């Protein structure tokens, strides 16, 4: 490993000033769980690492946002997110998912901002945050901007975060009455392994029927994706009836046909397509039996 510069700014203004959009070897590092592995494998050789470990304040912790939503600092560890009473109350789907997101040693170090900025399509939280309507705030010397989670991933290990930007926080809006959400993943080995496929489902019940649905698939594809046609197949379906299972199976079929899976060590494209079908159906069934966030 070649030598590199390590700097430890104490403010986010200092941190973004140290980033260099003209030098691909300059990176920010927080928990470092992914970046250090890339460095050890010589997939990335830095010229400068901008450590964020001394940054505090609003960049850490979970806070109640306006109107009942949540604001999560980018340097909040995944363990802190998992243990947050606010998260458990407002968006329990995240709390459940974190229990099998890698292992506790990784969750104690890995940060939410790093989890999202890395752009790995096998991450568990991006599809969940997409269905929850979350957005991230990116900051740079040029100012700040908000990016919807639906637009954050732009390709395989690629995100909309520019090389001179940092994720400062993640905003999860208040969930409306009648919302049910669930996340299912299929792993090739242990429960905390990287998923071969991940499926996040969210729907809003109103007057006994599905008024709106959001379905996202990750890991099987080069980036997390929403499946609009499958979402449309659920709208208007009565939740507490036998028709729900039929509609869920139809939506799962649509999702499986719509995705473009990638073959890798976790399974062939054909296998992953079938697992999307199976786990989409399971996730919708689990959501049906979960308590809604509110009653309408």
Write out key terms for the chains shown:
single chain; 296 residues; alpha+beta; Uridine Diphospho-n-acetylenolpyruvylglucosamine Reductase, domain 3; Enolase-like, domain 1; 2 domains; five-stranded antiparallel sheet; four-stranded antiparallel sheet; 12 helices; 33% helix; globular
Quick recap:
This protein has 296 residues and is α+β, with helices and mostly antiparallel strands.
Please report the first level of CATH classification, the CATH class of the largest domain: Alpha Beta
CATH topology of the largest domain: Uridine Diphospho-n-acetylenolpyruvylglucosamine Reductase, domain 3
Quick check: average pLDDT?
92
Strand content: 25-35%
Shape: globular
Helix fraction bin: 25-40%
State the major sheet: 5 strands, antiparallel
Structure description:
It is a single chain. This protein has 296 residues and is of the alpha+beta class. Helices cover 33% and strands 25% of the residues. A 5-stranded antiparallel beta sheet has the order 4-5-10-6-7. It has a 4-stranded antiparallel beta sheet with strand order 11-12-13-14. Strand 6 and strand 7 form a beta hairpin. It is globular, with a radius of gyration of 19 Å. The protein starts with a strand and ends in a 7-residue tail after the last helix. The mean pLDDT is 92.
